[in-house]
Specification:
100 residues, 5 helices
Length: 100
């Protein structure tokens, strides 16, 4: 049956938090992250990484470990986007602010 572990729960909570904060940053509901220079791109890239963690935790919960490992590729995408910081990964409202 299902094997609910503390690690799966923690990963799911962290993933959900990253997904929600990333979506809030993308839609402009959370704009205070722009006040901190080290958070420019990461807050917008929290969404793919959070989705990857959340999906991995849920797949681990239903014991589809192979797919759970594959879903961690989204975490890698978020990490690469955080380091690379492509301009297209910024939310549209933030790109307009940078152009001013």
């Amino acid at each position: 049956m299902t094997d609910l572990t503390l690690e799966s729960v923690v990963i799911a909570i962290v993933g959900a938090g990253m997904l929600v904060s990333g979506m809030a940053a993308w839609t402009g509901r959370w704009r205070s992250w722009t006040d901190f220079p080290f958070l420019f791109s990461p807050s917008a890239t929290f969404a793919p990484a959070g989705a990857g963690l959340l999906i991995a935790a849920l797949l681990e919960l239903i014991q589809l470990r192979t797919f759970a490992a594959a879903s961690l590729a989204l975490v890698g995408v978020g990490a690469v986007m955080t380091i690379w910081q492509p301009r297209w990964s910024y939310p549209p409202w933030f790109r307009h602010r940078l152009e001013r």
